[in-house]
Amino acid sequence: MGVKTVIFLLGLLLVCSSSGCSLMNAGDDDGASSDGEQRESLLADPATMGAVKLPKDYSVEDINVECNKTFIITMEYLNELNDTGSFPDETDKTPMCFMRCFLQKGGILTEDDKVNKEQAFAVGWVKNNETIDDCLQEMTGTNCERAYFLARCVSTRHLVEGRSKDSKRR
Prior knowledge:
The chain is an all-alpha fold. 54% of the residues lie in helices and 0% in strands. The longest helix is centred in the C-terminal third of the chain and has 27 residues, at 143-169. The chain is globular, with a radius of gyration of 15 Å.
């Protein structure tokens, strides 16, 4: 596993959940009447969620191996996501479903594909509410597409923020 991939995966998840992953796909949005309502419908209820506590012996590599059993993805795809913020082929659903599995196992997505904001903060995947709120708008399409678009948005923000910090240091 390459250093960049490990950094992305560790940034993405430091812990994971025991929730399962399925090939089930949902339709487009749930009929919410406004952007705010649609975003809210994509969030897990914080009163029932909080940060997911998981066994310490369950690692990022374990998640990668487990999700790769069903959704085979190459390191090239993950490296591309790290380097550019997106997968090389955004029509291939298998890597998107891998990302859904990965986010579910890490507790960032619930089994019913809602975003657990508290877990995203707890593992350091996001640093502020604005990132999650803005990235929720990207979550369209099937469940796998929604997971990928969320990850793509967060990854792109990390890349932009990193470049911004680099330019300030010069």
